[in-house]
Amino acid sequence: MGVRENLSDVLERIDAAARRSGRKGSDIALVAVTKTVEPALMLEAAEAGAKIFGENRVREAEEKKAMRWPDGASWHMIGHLQRNKAKTAAGIFDMIQSVDSVELARHIDRHAGAIGKTMPVLLEINMGSEESKTGFPPDGAFGAADEIAAFKNIKVEGLMAIPPYCENPEDARPYFRRLAGLRKEFEKRGHHFRELSMGMSHDFEAAIEEGATIVRVGTAIFGGRHQR
Ligand SMILES: *Cc1c(COP(=O)(O)O)cnc(C)c1O
Question: Where are the alpha helices (DSSP H) in 21-119?
Fold first, then answer.
């Protein structure tokens, strides 16, 4: 199948999962994860209705963004962001989903402020407390959220997580449920977070059923990735 067919299949599955959770497909934002994906394929996806591109490297996103895209395309950073790239990232991204430290947030705040921008961000939570992954520990993000909420040029809109890889999407479901529960804990502490970014190609339906508002899907749209 081509990108167009894959995308329409993914959108149908998002719609069905959204209905199972009492919502509409249009309530769920699809981030087409385009890391290592050729611009020609990205354009195909954009022309078939993909509106948000998710990239995990600043340089790659910067090069791609400089090309010609349909109006309204937006760019989300979904990978670990180094502080020395915060300036460029503040300039090119419409959302940074992978804020994993107060220090990084401080850098983004400063650079966003310098260009008169308010940057929407998500706090990345390391749900499985995996050493190989960055992110705040599930029960250790409250203090950080208070500090980050005080930054003027950042708006924390929600939480993002990449749970441990599970062969069976049902095994990832408890992590999704926990992230949704964590949002409620934030709510009690005065942080109103609208977005829950969780779910990838093999488990986005379970994530939506558990309350995801943003899913990040690469392989199911573009096929397997090739390292460059
Ligand atoms: C690569 C990536 C995805 C997409 O993964 P697929 O399995 O290809 O859908 C989603 N989120 C993040 C943070 C990623 O790095």
Answer: 39-47, 58-65, 86-92, 102-114
